[in-house]
Amino acid sequence: MKNADVARFLEEIADMLEMKGETPFKVRAYRDAARRIEGLRENVATLVEENRLTEIRGIGPSIAAKISEFVKTGRSSYLEDLAREFPKGMAELLEIPGVGAKKARLFYEKLGISTVEQLEEAARSHRLMQLPGIQEKTEQNVLQGIQRLKQVKGRMLLGTALPAAEEIIRELRTHPAAEQVEVGGSIRRMKETIGDIDILAASDKPEEVINAFVSLSPVKSVLAKGSTKASVLTEANLQIDLRVVSPDQWGAALQYFTGSKDHNIQLRTIAENRGLRINEYGVFRTDTNERIAGSTEEEVYRTLGMEWIPPEIRESSGEIEAAMENRLPHLVEIGDIRGDMHAHTNWSDGSDTIEAMAEAARALGYEYLTISDHSISMTFIKGLTVERIREQRRIIDRLNEHFEGFRLLHGIEVNIRSDGTLDYPDEILAEFDVVTASIHGGLGQSREQITQRMLSAIHNPHVDILGHPSGRLINKREPSEFDAEAVFTAAAETGTVLEVNAQPDRLDLRDADVRTAIESGATIAIDSDAHSTAQLELIRYGVATARRGWAEAQHVLNALPLDKLMERLRIRH
DNA sequence: GCCGTTTTCGGCCCGACTGTTTTCAGTCG
Questions:
Q1: What are the residue ranges of helices labelled H in A370-446?
Q2: Is the CB of A226 under 7 A from strand B?
Q3: Binning pLDDT at 50, 70 and 90, where does residue A572 land?
Q4: Cα–Cα distance for residue pair A99/A458, rounded to 1 Å
Q5: Cα separation of A256 and A267, whole Å?
């Protein structure tokens, strides 16, 4: 049983309770619990076994009992009772933008509607208009909401959302009335997936900025438009929300709209204890209503008695306590990255030559680039034979003769086969500067088998890096199940480096695992896994993931300068 | 349903936008 399964289970209960008309606070209790479970670094099953569920904030005896039953039996008598009141699948009505619990319940009770298809049919035949409080406009909105639901199912990758947001921001910043424009919400926190794109602007003439926003070139339709906020849908079906505040409210608003929700709630509590009130307009004294901060984020945090907290770690997972005690981590930055340890060329499934990749890496200011093509068993993508390995080596050696202050390292992404053996014998592996071992197949094996495969690679003296450890593809393939504690501890003991793969659909290790790995004493490598020159720049998503895992430069292999890196990997000069 | 260095009972973030209202409910973030 995975944490995500338990989170979904709790969400389902929350949906049912909401439709039932339960008090919103009870509903929220289940949603909060779901979010906590989802962000949990430990396996929830372990917590159930050890009776430690209630140690999690937001989980009390009642929710703990329901989780326990669900984890142990795979069922829940409570949810089954609730499900008797509403037909199965009815909760999907709540996913339609503009349809909440009240309308869903209305549709069901008056018209017997319990699926999106039935609702769509009813709206088309204008049967919704028979209902109280529903006119033609609402019916239209329901239909549009269903269309949008079909188009934007699921959360989009950060790698999709961020470039789209940056394009809008670039355009908005050219508007004379826009003093500041910044991305907010989960993009600013660099979460791996994004729901909506939130953009914040500061201006004394909000209407002008709003008008400019809704007429930008990528905008397909305007979903809502007021005097201080607007929502649009782009040609690529991304929803973008803009909020405009006055320049003196900038810091408070940016802080507020960056979140996370849990982070803000914790800040609010701290403010209250200090006789302060904090909202998107500023920080105020509760007694006199005097506004004492709000123009910059730094000011907001300082007023609450803490250092400014980097957006990536604003998740209410210890960062506020750390900020109050002046012990925030010094998070790794993109400028700390001295080179890339994982890149492919047209020798296997990459699209560019070794020379082109080297030039692109030099253009980024790197001191080194590891060429790591696929190994022999990946036949369908030209995995390297021993002959081609040696030929590649000669080319790399020759290129290195011409470089000043830059070096190509000869690496390989060697496949960890289903039985845990590697694709080449030790004497071949010994020829490489860098060996990255990755699992590409057999991801559905048991936890024990996967763990064993990882451990045997980690204990191989020639393996330097464990590549994209969990093998997940976000929204496509679940991570493999493995004993993270055993793997991270072994990595720390052997000095085997764990990869943080920066491909936007991988981000593997994921943020929470980065933090656990570092706490276990392991080192990480932030790698682009580039398959073209342009993809080298995906490294920023890896840096963001590492930052979300509280990684500092000292934890990152490729933050080392070339000479230290070669020492660490025992590469001959 | 959860939580507590004011509380074991009484709170729980709250403001903007839309549509259908004639003063406000529902939804969203």
A1: 386-402, 426-429
A2: yes
A3: low
A4: 50
A5: 10
Shortest-distance nucleotide from A257 CA to C1': B29
Alpha-carbon gap, residue A234 to A237, rounded angstroms? 5
Bases on strand B under 7 Å from any protein CB: 1-3, 6, 11-21, 25-29
Identify the structural domains of chain A with CATH numbers, from first to last.
3-151 (1.10.150.110), 156-245 (3.30.460.10), 251-324 (3.30.210.10), 334-568 (3.20.20.140)
Three-class secondary structure assignment of A54-86? HHCCCCCHHHHHHHHHHHHHCCCHHHHHHHHHC
- Strand order through the sheet with A276-279: A276-279, A282-285, A291-293
A572 exposure class (CB count in 10 Å sphere: 0-12, 13-18, 19+):
exposed
Instruction: Look at A339-343, A377-381, A466-470 and tell me which has the smallest mean pLDDT.
Output: A377-381
User: Which among A240, A30, A237 is positioned nearest to A153, based on CA atoms?
Assistant: A237
Helix A101-111 to helix A3-20 angle (10° resolution) is 60
- pLDDT at site A555: 98
Query: What is the distance in angstroms measured between the alpha-carbon CA of A496 and the sugar C1' of B22?
Result: 71
* Closest to A332 measured CA to CA, from A312, A317, A315: A312
- Cα A291 to Cα A185, A253, A265, A284, A286: the distances in Å are 24, 14, 20, 4, 9
Phi, psi torsion values for A283, nearest 5 degrees: -110, 130
From the list A194, A215, A199, the residue with the least C-alpha distance to A166 is: A199
Task: Give residue numbers, 39 to 98 of A, with CB < 7 Å from strand B.
Answer: 54, 57-64, 94, 96-98
Both tokens of residue A160? Answer: 């999709």
pTM beyond cutoff 0.70? yes
Average pLDDT over residues A418-437: 94
Q: How confident is the model at residue A152 (pLDDT cuts 50, 70, 90)?
A: low
* Banded pLDDT at A401 (limits 50, 70, 90): very high
Per-residue confidence (pLDDT) for residue A333, from 0 to 100: 98
